[in-house]
Write a structure and sequence with these properties.
The complex is a heterodimer. Chain A is built from no helices and eleven strands. By secondary structure, chain A is mainly β. Classes of the chains: A mainly beta, B mainly beta.
Chain lengths: 113, 111
């Protein structure tokens, strides 16, 4: 069966520090991968998605970047965090697109001080 | 911008009652999905209804879709305290590579 791992679960970082969040998927190949951010009590905002290694699409201009160095690995990064980067970050995968459900990790709660 | 908008934003009911949540969307769709999120956790896919379907059931869940009104509803029958969560509708864009979520309905089921 397929599983998705996302870590760390919580992270407290100072303003201006770098960020690296990692997401890995097991049990499937060539998945579509997604990074979302969720503000408290709100819906999800799509940040990045990837349909293959090295292929990244960005949905909103921001302080963050994403990379996909391996088929089932998706990394969210920042060189310098801002206060506004605080939030709940979720990674997800789907097999194919269009009518496929997305499967989510348990998220990373990021607090910027 | 959000494709789907859920209504109500929050709903509080007693255990055993039915819970109905509504979702409206703006553009034509191939399918609509419903997800559940427990507090502090990731989303879990509940059910997908295609544009040529009007109603779909899964256990205590019943989803309806009215493409003429661009709306969908999620009914949870005989609710349980464990159903307490946020529920989101979501639709794909025309290219099928981006899923857009509504703001969600926060459901609280009191024991």
């Amino acid at each position: 069966s397929q599983t998705i791992h996302q870590w760390p679960a919580t992270l407290v970082q100072p303003v201006g520090s770098p960020l690296s969040l990692e997401c890995t998927v097991e049990g499937t190949s060539n998945p579509n991968l997604y990074w979302y951010r969720q503000a408290a009590g709100r819906g999800l905002q799509l940040l990045f998605y990837s349909v293959g290694i090295g292929q990244i699409s960005s949905e909103v201009p921001q302080n963050l970047s994403a990379s996909r160095p391996q088929d089932r690995q998706f990394i969210l990064s920042s060189k310098k965090l801002l206060l506004s980067d605080s939030g709940f970050y979720l990674c997800a995968w789907s097999q194919g697109q269009g009518d496929q459900p997305q499967h989510f990790g348990d998220g990373t709660r990021l607090s910027i001080l | 911008s959000q494709q789907g908008e859920e209504d109500p934003q929050a709903l509080s009911i007693q255990e055993g009652e039915n819970a109905t949540m509504n979702c409206s969307y703006k553009t034509s769709i191939n399918n609509l999905q419903w997800y559940r999120q427990n507090s502090g956790r990731g989303l879990v896919h509940l059910i997908l209804i295609r544009s040529n379907e009007r109603e779909k059931h899964s256990g205590r869940l019943r989803v309806t879709l009215d493409t003429s009104k661009k709306s969908s509803s999620l009914l949870i029958t005989a609710s349980r305290a464990a159903d307490t969560a946020s529920y989101f509708c979501a639709t794909y864009n025309n290219a099928g590579n981006m899923l857009t979520f509504g703001g969600g309905t926060r459901l609280m089921v009191k024991p």
